Fold this sequence. Notes:
Layout: H1 13-19, H2 26-44, E1 50-55, H3 62-74, E2 80-84, H4 92-95, H5 104-108, E3 119-120, E4 126-129, H6 138-142, H7 145-157, E5 160-164, E6 183-189, H8 195-207, E7 212-218, H9 227-230, E8 237-239
Parallel strand pairs: 1-5, 1-6, 2-4, 2-5, 6-7, 7-8
Antiparallel strand pairs: 3-4
Amino acid sequence: MQIGKRSKKLQTADEFSSQLGKHSGFQVEEAYKIIRTNLLFTLASAKNNVLLVSSAESGAGKSITCANMALSMAETGSNVLLVDADMRKPVQNRIFALPNQNGLSTILSGVVALDETKTTYKKTSLDIVTAGPTPPNPVELLSSTQMEILLQKLSEQYDYIFIDTPPISVLSDALVLESKVGGTVLIARQNQTTYDALQNTVSRIKQVGGTLLGVIVNDVQQREKPYGYYYSNYYSNYYSNYYSNYENK
């Protein structure tokens, strides 16, 4: 499946949500339907409904893919929450054109309450919590008791929770959340993400007792085999193609 070329223009939520509607291409719609269906099955047997989204390295497109996944799941009518836990380099506030004065960092620091920070995206069942100002101690906040309590509370309020985290090979932020989530989906980019980097990331997730649900490979050309074929013995395979105008992280 082919996708469009990237540019330096930031893609907004309006632009990519329309791609999942009546004007979207067949490949885009089918890719996200497949991902959504697989997630519905895999999360049904997971320990909770919290999904962590990360990557092996920067530039794989994890943030835009995480946003698309959350939007796609909300289209089913499920109550969905998207949390930007990349407090060092937040992107979800830019994608959805939201303020970022308060967010996850200020919630965990006790500055504001959850209800003061979450925003419903237009007329959908998708709520969003931005990352908030960059704190001096992101890892400590994510591994704190406050974060665990927050996720437990949110799990009771929402059908599905998507957490956007920094790349695992770059920072340990995502790894400290592994014990608190139902599983992790990794984002890779064809012709960029190496097998060694992906294998190392898989190993790090397993070392902390995390559950790998699958991999989404971006920029897959029809004539090329996705990484998922190579790793089929390690995890389920998800393939995602999206027409993005966003210069991915």
